[in-house]
Structures are given as C-alpha cells and as structure tokens.
C-alpha cells in the first residue's frame, strides 16, 4: 500500500514545481509576469505623502507670489517710463492750491482751513501720496510705509527735512475733518490736502495721477476709487525726483532717498 500512495505525492510535487521553473525561465529570458509586485504599488502610493503635499503647496504659493510681484514691478516700470517719456520728469508736479486739513484747527469749527500751495513744499524733501480715506487696504499700507520711511530717515539724518503729504482723490467724501482724523493714525507730520473736483482733477493731472471718482459722486455713496499707487519724491525746489510703486520696499526707498540727497548736496 505504501508504494501505491507515494506515486500521487510525487506527481503533485512535479505539478507545483513546473510553474516555478517556468517563472524562473521567463525572468532569464527578459520577460516578466503581468502582475506587478506588491512593493511597486506601495512605492507609487508613497509619492503622495503629507510631507510631499506640503512641499508642493509651498512651492506653488512661492511661484504665485513671485510672478505676481514681477508683474506688478513691470507695470510700475512701464508707468514710470511713460511719465518720463511723455512728459519729462522736470515737468511732473506743478502749481496747485488745496485746503490744508491738518493745520492747527481753531476754536471756530466753521472756519475754512488755510490754503496749501506748491510753494509750501519748497525747502523740504516731500513724499506725496494720492489716496482716499475709505480705501480698505492699499492706502493704509502705503501710508504706513511712508511713516516708516520718514522715521528711518529721521534716525539716520535728523537734520534732513522730509515732509509726508496726503492728497485726497475723493473730494465728495473726504472733508477736512475726515482727512484730519484719518491721518492721525499715521505720522504726526502728515499734511492732508483736499479740494473740490476741479482742483483735485488739476493736481492729479499735474502729477499724472489717474483716479476714477466721478464729478457727481454721492457723498453718502458706498463706492471705491481706482487710482495710481505711487509715492512721489519731490526735491526742495519742488521738482520731481522719483516715483516709488507699491512693490518698492521701505528699505529700498530709504536707500534711494539717501542717494538723491547726497547728489543734491554735491
């Protein structure tokens, strides 16, 4: 009985061994099985790990910020080139007459603020910015930057006269009390200027500033004003020197102003 039972076992062993030898022969001939090994599948899934996802998002955000900043820089450079070629830097600015909202108020609330003209910027380096008090983010950020610039310049050169000036492009809503209160959150030496629509349009034309406020704007209306975003540097003779865009950092502006002052003193 034992020899009879041993034969099926040998046949079974041969049947199992043949596929193994066939697989080994396929590997030697350069072919492979149609079913990939489990380890390959685990490696594919491992590419999308949490660390890889974080790195992917960080790189994407960095590239978006870089190209957005570069685009803004190109736009500002084109605008400055247009101002220089079309009008000439010495011609930027010109005469104006506006109300000085930040002059020392008298006890009479109905008294009209004194007039501030282009003659009043003579003798100082002026940083002129055009904006409006209802601006949600850009204007406050630029006014904060100008405040930091003036503070840095006063530390490095206390005798350097630098005057920050804010000119409203929203004459319908920016009354003298409104501008005075608005600028109290920034540098204490800020001069706030307003005028009627014709006066505002004239000074913006002199500085080549675009603004979208309509002449018949409703003072109680809820609207935003599109306008040029530049800080204009004027020398002590009232002549235009340079325009600093939104992407220009505070340190870059301070460095450039110091260079201009050195050239002026020579």
UniProtKB/TrEMBL annotation:
Thioredoxin domain span: 90-262
Transmembrane segments: 46-67
Region named Disordered: 24-43
Keywords of the record: Copper, Disulfide bond, Membrane, Metal-binding, Mitochondrion, Mitochondrion inner membrane, Transmembrane, Transmembrane helix
Entries under InterPro entries matching the protein: SCO1/SenC (IPR003782), Synth_of_cyt-c-oxidase_Sco1/2 (IPR017276), Thioredoxin-like_sf (IPR036249), Thioredoxin_domain (IPR013766)
PROSITE patterns attached to this UniProt entry: THIOREDOXIN_2 (PS51352)
Gene Ontology cellular component list: mitochondrial inner membrane
Biological process terms in GO annotation: intracellular copper ion homeostasis; mitochondrial respiratory chain complex IV assembly
Subcellular compartments: Mitochondrion inner membrane
GO terms for MF: copper chaperone activity; copper ion binding
Keyword Transmembrane helix among record annotations: yes
Disulfide bonds: 135-139
Sequence positions that bind Cu cation: 135, 139, 227
Similarity-based family: Belongs to the SCO1/2 family.
Protein name: H-sco1
Top-level taxonomy: Eukaryota, Fungi, Dikarya, Basidiomycota, Agaricomycotina
């Amino acid at each position: 009985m034992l020899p009879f039972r041993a034969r099926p076992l040998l046949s079974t062993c041969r049947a199992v061994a043949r596929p193994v030898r066939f697989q080994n022969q396929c590997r030697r001939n350069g072919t492979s099985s149609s079913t990939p090994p489990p380890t390959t599948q685990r490696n594919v899934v491992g590419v999308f790990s949490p660390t890889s996802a974080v790195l992917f998002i960080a790189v994407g955000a960095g590239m978006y910020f870089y190209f957005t900043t570069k685009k803004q820089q190109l736009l500002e450079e084109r605008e400055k080139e247009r101002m220089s070629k079309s009008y000439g830097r010495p011609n930027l600015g010109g005469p104006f007459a506006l109300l000085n909202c930040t002059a020392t108020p008298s006890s009479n609330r109905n008294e009209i603020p004194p007039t501030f003209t282009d003659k009043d910027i003579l003798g100082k380096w002026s940083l002129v910015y055009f904006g409006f008090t209802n601006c949600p983010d850009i204007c406050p950020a630029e006014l904060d930057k100008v405040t930091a610039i003036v503070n840095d310049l006063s530390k490095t050169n206390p005798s350097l006269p630098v005057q920050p000036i804010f000119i409203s492009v929203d004459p319908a809503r920016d009354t003298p009390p409104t501008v005075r209160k608005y600028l109290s959150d920034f540098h204490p030496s800020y001069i706030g200027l307003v005028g009627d629509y014709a006066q505002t349009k004239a000074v913006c034309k002199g500085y080549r500033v675009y603004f979208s406020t309509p002449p018949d704007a409703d003072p109680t209306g809820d609207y935003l004003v599109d306008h040029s975003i530049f800080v204009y540097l004027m020398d002590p003779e009232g002549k235009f020197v340079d325009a600093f865009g939104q992407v220009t950092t505070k340190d870059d502006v301070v460095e450039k102003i110091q260079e201009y002052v050195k050239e002026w003193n020579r």
